[in-house]
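Researcher: Going back to the complex we discussed earlier. I've cleaned up the inputs and rechecked each line, so this should be the final set. Can you rerun the prediction on the complete assembly and write out the structure?
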Amino acid sequence: MTRNQRKATDFMIDVGLVLFGLLMLAPLLMLVANAFKSPAEMVAWPPTFIPANPTLDNFRSVLGETPLLLWIWNSLSFAIMSTIAIVLTSSIAGYVIAKFPFRSINVVFALFLATAIVPFEVYMIPLYFQVKDLGMLNTNQGLLIGYLVMSFGIFLIRQNVLASIPDELIEAARIDGAGELWIYWHIVLPLLRGPLAALAVLAFFQAWTSFAWPMIVATRRAAYTIEVGLALFSTGYTVDLGKLSAASACVLVPSVVAFVILRRNFVQGVASTGMKE
Amino acid sequence: MASVEIRDLRKSFGPIETIHGVTIDVPDGEFVALVGPSGCGKSTILRLLAGLEEVTAGTISIGGRVINEVEPKHRDIAMVFQNYALYPHMTVAENMGFSMRLLKKSKEEIRREVGSAAEILGLTPYLGRYPKQLSGGQRQRVAMGRAIVRQPQVFLFDEPLSNLDAQLRVQMRAELKAIHNRLKVTTIYVTHDQVEAMTMADRIVVMKDGYVMQAGAPLDLYDQPANTFVARFVGSPSMNIFAADVSGGQVQFAGTDWCAAPADLAGAVQMGIRPEHFTIGEGGAVLAVENVDPTGSETLVQGQLGGVPATVLLRTRAAVRAGDLLPVAVRPELIHLFDAESGDTLPMNSEGL
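Model: Rerun complete. Updated structure for the full complex:
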């Protein structure tokens, strides 16, 4: 293949990818555009991409009639706490399973992995009754109970510890006089920064996009997370497209921004799993 | 500083015993090398000393105190690992001051100690760097520095030089020895490289399959190996061991009388001759030369002696070529005799010398 031919091929690939990217982006752009349209324009055919008469009515009524900001806050605090919990539990459990290989630990590890096979929906209802008995419905703690541990996270950290933390490092610290917790905090955690960042991103979005669990745990409007709140705009009979679009746009923007900021961790951390750093 | 005493030490992993009652005494300030082929248990002994493995039976004492049940951090030891075990997220200075930081020493004191250790090791310009920004030899020095800063009773080294290239290894060997001469800390050094052991240690303990084969000063092991294993292991290239016969008061091999046999010896015997003890001379056997490796200062000749492979090391540039027949001889007092069955050294008659 000559250089020109290769250039042409590369160009065609780029064009294809750009078109595909636009296709993926179109619904999101449409959603944001819809948020600025009047109800009449929204159902007009053919649909307009740029609103003819941009209006902020949708935002005004969404922010005025529903506690949207409170819901975002609920989601945010739930997602952040869940992320912290998952990062801590995964790093401790993964480290212990990788570096303290007594025989029964493999059974424990197998049990951890087994929980990944059972869909959350299967034990969601029994868990709900426990949360209810604990009096934690409509609270952040109640939400968190379902999102404290992630079996994939334990697996991810175990693999990373095995691949990138040699035994000698921990033994050297022990000889130097470090206690086990000290070793975990000052040696293991700093060395796991990469995979933990990736895990944090996964955990955050898992909690942020969770729907079924917040839906049943939060029974009061004020306790809803944003996902549950958004669902309110479509009832069995009607969908208030304008408000739903405006609310979705409000939610979409922070998520996309967060993803763009964390994208490198997200891709690298997962891609380099099990590889030597 | 302190002496180390290992008494009848045993270690089992599950049902398999890997250390079978080892006794080693290391006087205060001595540099002892544990050598042996891989799997001989030398690293296990070091890990037992460090407290990284639990003792199955026997005792380990440091400075007269039995430390079988003592936590690693309270044993007052410092260990240098083969892969250095430097903390990748800490600078050289932080790595070296790590143990002092754990002892809650003041920043000022840590800086002073780290500074003086860095001075000894020539690491002063690198204190702010991270391990991955250093060369292999520098990392090795940092690992040493971490041990020195600790000011332990005993240094433990686990094959510290085996990740370095040949030239650097020779240089670090000299540096380690100089540091030992300066600090005079009791040192136990594990290596599979007998040259390292020979050049650095005051005393060598040769191990095989979890047993001590022989312990002694390097040249004593070279001159008076206790058995064929030590004879082959110590010295490079290895000692030639020939299956010889005793008849008429003479040790005979390849149709030649080599030396006078001890009075009460008869029948089969193993005869050991170091390659460097052969000389070209009349009256001996004839080596059918197969291969010649000139190294400049010496000439290594391999061939068949009485139909058995043999190695001869000549201290000169000999004009020998493959296919030549080389007459070789050995002074009788340089010949070692070993029991044909057990491989243990046979006492030579004083008249035989």
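Model: Worth noting: The radius of gyration of chain A is 24 Å.
Researcher: Good, that matches what I expected from the previous run.
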